[in-house]
Amino acid sequence: MQHLHIFNSQCKQLRIILYNKTRQLCGHEVPIKVPENATIYRVKREIEKVKAVPHQIQWIVFGARNLQDTERLSDYAIRDGYTLYSVPTFIEIPSIPNL
């Protein structure tokens, strides 16, 4: 039990705001917990687990930077409680009929 407590104290609680093509998810907050040494790729996989947004189409943005999959949260000085943004790497535009 003590080991679990130590692990939890080393986890970061992050808020992820989804910007996504589906209206059900757009602008929604997704709280996730990840270890403080987690990679950005791991953050994407956690979002995928919770909201079924494929990790392959996510950009994770912090400030004005697109974060790289191989980097760690600590590389960007991301702390507990910070907000990250999940943005799709493509946008679907519905076809517009000719007028």
UniProtKB/TrEMBL annotation:
Q: Where in this chain does the record put each Ubiquitin-like domain?
A: 14-85
Q: InterPro entries of this UniProt entry?
A: Ubiquitin-like_dom, Ubiquitin-like_domsf
**The protein's name in its UniProt record:** Ubiquitin-like domain-containing protein
